[in-house]
Amino acid sequence: MNAQSQFAPATQTNFVGFLNPESFEFSQRVANMLSNSTMVPEQYRAVTKVKAGKDSYGNMMYRDEPNPNGLPNCIIALNMSNRLGADVMMIMQNLHVIEGRPSWSSQFILGSINSSGRFSPLRFEVENLGELEVEYQETVWNNGRKNQVTKSLKVENQTCVAWALEAGTRMPEFTLEELKEHGGVYKCCKAYGIPLVESSKISMEMAVKEGWYTKNGSKWKTMPEQMLRYRAASFFGRVYAPELLMGLRSVEEEQDRIIDVTPDQSLSEQADTNKLKREILSAKSPAALDETESKVLMLTDDAKREELLKMISAQAKKFQPASNVVNDQNSTSNDVAEKAIAEKKPEPKKEGAPPVEKTPLKKPTSAEVKKDYLVKMNQVETVAELNQLREQFVINDALTEAHLSYLKSAYTQHKANFDKPAEEEVKEAPAVNEIKSSQIIGGLKIQIGNAQNITELDVVAKSIRDNKPNITPDHMNDVLDVFAARKKFLENQLSMFDTDDTPWADKAISEIEAAKNQDEINNIFIDPMYEEQSDPDQQRITNAAQKRESELFGN
């Protein structure tokens, strides 16, 4: 079978459609069959493979996760296949989605044009004009501000034109002398006035000025001639045969159209992080640590900010008396100073009054108060509640200046979300799709039922958390009930062979004490059993986690 038969419209029944009930039902049946095949690309499959961590040997493990978009994507591919008269598998293999936009592979564009029967096979006229210094505009970020700067770049300036003859136009047979005189078939046709169908001239100078050449990972640097041909063919098709491409661009064009608007702050962030680490380690007093902490809270990188805050907590313990070490991972240097002053002068006992034993109440640290206000801030539903919360924390003496500033910044961000106009709220992401949510929990219930042990069930728990944004609250409660029942069943099975009656909280503390990294500690808190523990047991687990984090990330 030649390429012509693959692209040419076939004389077949129009079985794919969206308006005819019979054809739509048949389309769904065919799409369902395709979505269960492993030979179609991942975006068309009913089930996709998702990374689920590594095993004890370091090999990556994968889990199956339902893909609610697979069936609709297959129906769309069937519709496009029917309109183009092409094989559906070829459409699926050559249709790529770049930032939500479908696009064709360049090979498909070339094949569609060559097999359309409207033109002769595409030819390319490539010419090297020598080295050229090209000036271009580039956006740079300096201190958080966007600036346009002019830069120059030396490139080997090559040009390319895609050309062909219309069907019915005869190509003359040029002699060798004519080809040598004019410099090739293209220039001979131009010299003798033969009508050609040709694309715009694509050059390396254009690639630099348009920003294609300077993008990270650009193929224009490594294979310029191939990219020139691909781009010229795409331009040719969009001008002379747009119906063959259905108005879609090539993959390379869509990739070149992507604009990275993220400021490049990696170098400055790294320099600031190193400087702050030196300041933390060289701090001579709690006041110096407080000043450094306010700088740390201004960092945009969450991971680096958390790392430095842990260093500050560990460094603050050096300024405490050896007998009064605060066992709190989130306490700051200011908290330590406040506690030292409070314990310096005990209250005198009143004469004549009988001694009364009172349970000492631990004063919450500034970090704990800040965390509590942030949790409440995330739970407010109206601007009035948010303003009431602000009135509370601005007069709270337990907060340090740095933490108070952080809360004010968080208040401003939350208030901005409430102040958005109604038009923007309409454009926000729609509510969770009930049908999609039902499909997801159906797959999750199957995974829960197939789990043979607690370890496999923990993998399913991570899948439940990952899919939470796409599941309705009722469905989430339903799947959590199934999860809890399955876990209880597996634990009861273990108890038949294992007489260990150690409470779950004690087991969790033992696992925390043996943890080697932050992820192993976090696994305890994301376990559904944690929510079933009493408040004292949860506090014991939290204290053990803070102690282990101090050992891992402290001095």
In short:
With 555 residues, the chain is α+β, with helices and mostly antiparallel strands. It contains 26 helices and eight strands. It folds into five domains: 3-98, no CATH class; 123-257, no CATH class; 266-342, no CATH class; 366-426; 434-548, no CATH class.
**Helicity level, as a percent range?**
40-55%
**Which structural class do you get from the secondary structure elements?**
alpha+beta
Strand content: 5-15%
Q: Count helical runs.
A: 26
- Gyration radius (Cα, Å) is 33 Å
Taking the sheet with the most strands, its summary is: 4 strands, antiparallel
Tell me the total number of β-strands. Answer: 8
Which of globular, elongated, flat, extended, rod-shaped describes the shape? extended
| Total count of domains | 5
How would you state the average pLDDT, rounded? Answer: 79
| N/C terminus separation | 71 Å
- Taking pLDDT < 50 over at least 5 consecutive residues as the criterion, the unreliable ranges are 1-13, 323-334, 336-345, 349-353, 422-429
Oligomer: single chain
